[in-house]
Amino acid sequence: MDLDARYLLCPMPVIRVSGCIAGLAAGDVLTVTCTDPGVLHDIPAWCRLEGHSILAIRNEPCGDIVLTIEVRK
Hints:
Elements: E1 2-5, H1 12-22, E2 29-34, H2 39-50, E3 53-59, E4 65-70
Parallel strand pairs: 1-2
Antiparallel strand pairs: 2-4, 3-4
């Protein structure tokens, strides 16, 4: 599943990720596209607290930050 969280500022990307993951099953993968550099800390920290895994983080040339999350719970 893909989530577009571009142009949202803290804490909205984490809130959107949380809401999206609530509807997913263990083993599902969520790809989140953001522009707020704060997500480089906030989303991995939230995933650690909630038990999910960050599979990849990419910084795109256009300025987007793309995080790939595996749902673990």
